[in-house]
Amino acid sequence: MMEVNGMKRKWDLYIVLFLLIGVLGIGYFFHLKKQSELSEFAKTTKGEILEVYSVPNRGYYIKYVYLVDKHRYEGHVPVEGKIENYNVGDACEVNYSVKNPKYSEINFK
Prior knowledge:
- By secondary structure, this protein is α+β, with helices and mostly antiparallel strands.
- β2 and β3 form a beta hairpin.
- The chain folds into 2 domains: 40 residues; 65 residues.
- It has a 5-stranded antiparallel β-sheet with strand order 3-2-1-4-5.
- It is built from 1 helix and 5 strands.
- The termini are far apart.
């Protein structure tokens, strides 16, 4: 009977590991897809900073808004440089994918 419980726990561990690897793999795939589209189909527009906030153990982030063909999109990115350089209401330059405008990033250059 002990052997059956040990085998069940082993299979439970395999299932959890399989699901974890699957979730991480899917997240990584979408990250690569976003980066690929931004580099291949990039266009620039003006945006506005909506919020500067911190995430514990991850740092500061900027939430921003931008318009493409009269549609409003929002994004968020980690802060590059000093947090003091960014304020709510500041204009920012946003790179977005023409193919999929929800893919965007702030141009910090």
